[in-house]
């Protein structure tokens, strides 16, 4: 791969993809036809760090993810992610992918891409919007979401950027996750993340150093609160969804005392929503205290009498297997004096 300072833009990729036989090294992509936009150009699905292009070849459909900036260690990260996911093939949340170090030729120079299986389904926010009048479907989605979070924790996997654009939902509410650039697996323990996720789903205090098996729990709770809330009161969707979130926005986490969303959620009177919301807001407050130099006082893993020591990245099986353990699991990562202030909440079933 070229080591020059030049890196392709979205326009550069669009130009290259007009001649797939010249652009790609993959034989399957070379014979593919890019799906075009209204101008007849390859249609990009744009993200912050990459643009994705759909290619078809007969009944086969592929996604080519082209990076908009250089991420030096991405090859090694994807190799470790791929190795770990092979051990968990029974999980149906992931798509087949292949990282190609010299996957695409742009202006005579080679650059990396990720070739992925194209997955049918709509983005999470679209699925919710289409089913606002079907509370039973949203209830089913909630159960599937709970199961996904438990399964990821049991498999020692954290996606790193759970948000509507990375979550595809099929008509039967089956869930698929895409975009694995920021994924954590045990072999990456001790590294830093190369991103901090969508700001409307993440603790504002999250940094690239927050990279561990528990990093999905905050976004996981935020998403679950939103699904449960609109199932009870669909008008919340029209009021707070802006097309690039579910209900929450970053300022709701930063200034909860002035957030009309927080007030509306509390007014629902739902105990489960209130409990999870309180945990989310306390996690944000704890991160703010930590940023001011008051790090959370947490006991080291295995320091309690009789505690069983575990290897890095290994979650407590009992905790992970209980749906009610989700908030407790991530709460212990963020909230100061968790054990003392919340009593036996961590042990609730």
Summarize the structure.
This protein is α+β, with helices and mostly antiparallel strands. The protein has helices spanning 10-17, 20-23, 27-30, 74-86, 124-130, 135-154, 217-232, 235-240, 250-254, 260-267, 271-291, 317-321, 325-334, 338-341; strands at residues 33-34, 44-46, 50-57, 60-67, 97-106, 109-117, 122-123, 167-169, 175-177. The protein has 2 domains: 10-117, Phosphorylase Kinase, domain 1 (2-Layer Sandwich), CATH 3.30.200; 122-302 and 309-347, Transferase(Phosphotransferase), domain 1, CATH 1.10.510.
Task: Please supply descriptive tags for the structure shown above.
14 helices, 3-stranded antiparallel sheet, single chain, alpha+beta, 349 residues, Transferase(Phosphotransferase), domain 1, 9 strands, 2 domains, Phosphorylase Kinase, domain 1
Q: Tell me the span between the first and last alpha carbons.
A: 52 Å
- The domain tally reads 2
CATH architecture descriptor of the largest domain:
Orthogonal Bundle
Number of strand segments: 9
The gross shape turns out to be globular
Average per-residue pLDDT, rounded, comes to 86
Series of H and E elements: HHHEEEEHEEEHHEEHHHHHHHH
Uncertain ranges = 295-349
The largest β sheet comes out as: 6 strands, antiparallel
- Pairing-aware structural class of the strands and helices? alpha+beta
Task: Using the CA coordinates, give the radius of gyration.
Answer: 21 Å
Strand content: 5-15%
Q: CATH top level of the largest domain? A: Mainly Alpha
Helical fraction equals 25-40%
CATH level 3 topology of the largest domain: Transferase(Phosphotransferase), domain 1
Number of helices: 14
